[in-house]
Amino acid sequence: MCFVRSFLSAVLAITWISSAQAGSLPQPVGKTILTISGQISNTNADGVARFDRDMLEALGITTVQTTNPWYDGRTVFEGVLLKKLMETVGAKGETVKAVALNDYAIAIPMADFEKFNVVLAMKRDGNYMEVREKGPLFVIYPYDSTPELQTQIYYTRSAWQVAKLIVE
Question: What pTM value is reported for the model?
Fold first, then answer.
């Protein structure tokens, strides 16, 4: 089963790359867990880019192991690099507003994505994050990589239960 899923992810990634170059993205097959809008050039719906979990995973998964204020000890997060996600949708803005399921919103400078390798995490300690566990998506910085990230500024940018990203 794992081989089949890996194979399907590879096929989706190849399809994705060719269609993203044309300015459109493939349609989600599963439940949409993320919608990206605003200043983007690659879409798959009326001016927006919708993603299901498999589409996000097809972009490549990055692992970040770090301490953080929400969990005890070091936590392993897995997800897609936000810089890769922004490249995929053809983002052209300066900031990204992350909007949570409860409408909490925070503006994150796009420069952070490149500078710090910020991850849009889907898994925590090997398990997909459910809504009650700060999922389905959680903006995670590699907090242990530099003392600069261990401040309230970056903890505040770490939105959880993310459902939308708006490129501004």
Answer: 0.86
